[in-house]
UniProtKB/TrEMBL annotation:
It catalyses: (2S,6S)-2,6-diaminopimelate = meso-2,6-diaminopimelate. GO terms for cellular component: cytosol. Its main location: cytoplasm. This is Diaminopimelate epimerase. Pfam families: DAP_epimerase (PF01678). It comes from Actinomyces howellii. NCBIfam families: DapF. SUPFAM superfamilies: Diaminopimelate epimerase-like (SSF54506). Homodimer. The active site is at residues 93, 258. Its EC number is 5.1.1.7. Pathway: Amino-acid biosynthesis; L-lysine biosynthesis via DAP pathway; DL-2,6-diaminopimelate from LL-2,6-diaminopimelate: step 1/1. GO terms for molecular function: diaminopimelate epimerase activity. Catalyzes the stereoinversion of LL-2,6-diaminopimelate (L,L-DAP) to meso-diaminopimelate (meso-DAP), a precursor of L-lysine and an essential component of the bacterial peptidoglycan.
Amino acid sequence: MTAAWGLAGHELIKGHGTQNDFLVLIDPDREVEVSAGDVAAVCDRRAGVGADGFVRVVRTARLPGAEAFLEAVPEAEWFMDYYNADGSVAEMCGNASRLFAAVLDAEGLVALSDGESVTIGTRGGARTVTRSGDLWTVDMGRARLAPADGALADPREEGWDTTVTVPGLDGPRAALSIAMPNPHAVVALADDDELAAAGLAGLTGSGAPVLYDPQPPQGTNLELVVPLGDRLDPGTGERVGLARMRVLERGVGETRSCGTGCCAAAVALHTWEGQGAPEDYLIEVPGGQLGVHVGADPLGQDAVVLLTGPAVIVGRFTLA
Ligand SMILES: N[C@@H](CCC[C@H](N)C(=O)O)C(=O)O
């Protein structure tokens, strides 16, 4: 007996970025029917292959309604068609975008030597990924404050715009909402004991028992962050902010890393510290460490957040 799914017979690539793992389908001409049900089935860790997300590599020109986007960014030949493990779509995935570039190179679709870049399309806009040996840096675009309805006039003043109640942690906690452009709510915790006490394991990343007030209309990813101060970078002499983080991803559950989540956490840390805050951050997640450059004014009009980390291709296989 073989599994009954619409992706039967297709080759997939398995890979990860700091253990945020993905299944990648190469479908340049958009010939494969990808349904939410099939994505959920193949991402299931028991009955399927198992992954936090599913990515289709497709030519941007093959997407319905992509003309205006391609006119604005003609170099974005390839589009990252990204799905969460439950089959829902998301605007952006930082870890998958590094793997996407590594797969383009490994599959011979775009040759990327050290120092070379590729611009890809995502639902959140164009993103440029640059190779530096085994590391990849993604230009994540602008961070935006995403205050929930009825929130504070300028959350930068207070440092928060919403509250979240997390199993295992007492009381509602203040959270700052940041869009990368996918939604994130960042909560600062006192120490590692609190981080360990948060009952994220086994949650689905959708709805109760994590309660937001007000409820983010499109749902949100949740980052629990322990600030660890900073250290001097011996190379640049600049301060580097340090933090440890756990994440509950929308449409997935707790994952071992989240690239957009690390960016949101770094922007929140910078916002909370205010003027003179570090422009670079190292965020430790259960699956490794990611570097985030936020610049001096990460929420400014021209700001660009940069995410740096590894991308690992684990193998290729064919679905029965
Ligand atoms: N793991 C990703 C984020 C994936 C999307 C997220 N679950 C959402 O629904 O917004 C990352 O590395 O950024």
